[in-house]
Structures are given as C-alpha cells and as structure tokens.
Amino acid sequence: MPADTTDEAIPGSDPFAIFEAWFAQARASEPNDPNAMALATATSGAAPSVRMVLLKGHGPDGFVFFTNFESRKGGELAANPQVALLFHWKSLRRQVRIEGTIKEVTSAEADAYFASRHPESRLGSAASDQSRELPSREAYMARVEALRAQYPDGSVPRPAHWSGYRVTPHAIEFWQDRAYRLHERRRFMRGDHGDWASSLLYP
User: Fold this and answer.
1) Which residues form the domain of 44?
2) Domains contained in the chain, number
C-alpha cells in the first residue's frame, strides 16, 4: 500500500520564513552554490533568455543579485523589469519559483558587496565587457593584467556599470518532491496591500 501523503509539508504562512528555512537547509546539504538561481529575463519584445546567477541577499524586501549593467541581461532588465527566479536544490528535492520586478540597489550596497569580493574577482569583473564578442582568451587576460598593474594591491574600484538589482516578488511558489510523484506545490500571491495569500496547486 502506498504511504499516506495527505499531510501538508509546506505551511501556508509567511513565504519569506519558509524560504529562509529551506535556504538554511540547502546551505547545509547542497555540495556547490546553494545560492545559485536561474534568472529569466525578456526583451521589450518578450523574447526570453535565462542564465544562472548567485543570490547575494534576501529578506522581506526582496532577493538581490549583482551584474554588469552593460551585459545582455543588463540590457534586457533595462528594457523589461519583469523577471523570474528559480532555485533547484537537488539534495533536498525542492524548488522555489519567484516572480517579480527589479529595482537597482543603492550605490552604497553595490560598493559594499564589490569591496567584499576577492581581489581577483574584482579584477575580472572590471576587465570584462560582459556578453560582448571577445577576440581571444588572451585579450581578456591581458586586460586583467593591465588592471593588476594599475591596482597592485587589488583595490580596483567598482565600475559604474557594475551594480545590483533587488527582485521584489509578487508571487513565490514552493515545490516539494513527494512519494510516487504526488508532489506538493504551494503558491503565494501578494495582495494590493502587501499581504500574502496562498493556495495549494495540483502537481
């Protein structure tokens, strides 16, 4: 006889509290980059694209990531502020889907995060014309070395076109694997006054 799977594993309470609990478990169980998330964007003409980025902050005010504003994703975000995020934690057999709009973080937030990065990562970001055609790997590394010579202590400043976005969600959906593919899904929707309502979805 199949096990009884009528009990609900995902509470219909605060979606941010659920995310925090799941993310803490992912940090303890995922072998690599538990903060990795797929970021889906679209052009003004609704042509989609998706790539992996890293979550660098989260809370009731939203989910933060950083990028080069002159990259392909930066251009799409400037043209269309609507985005979707997806976390897939294979070790926990869970997914979280987030839909919302983006807003640029403050310069102070961007400066603080950029300064916290490893010097080599700061050099790599400052030397990159992200998403644009690169004639050779050597050309990129030559730019890195030129910046290293200019900033031998690694204190390369944050480029003006490198900053971050905060995704303010209007929908958050949690997916939990269950036995016999009788999965559990709960979707939270933000109301007009900032309150959240949830409902279960058929898997």
Assistant:
1) 15-107+160-201
2) 1
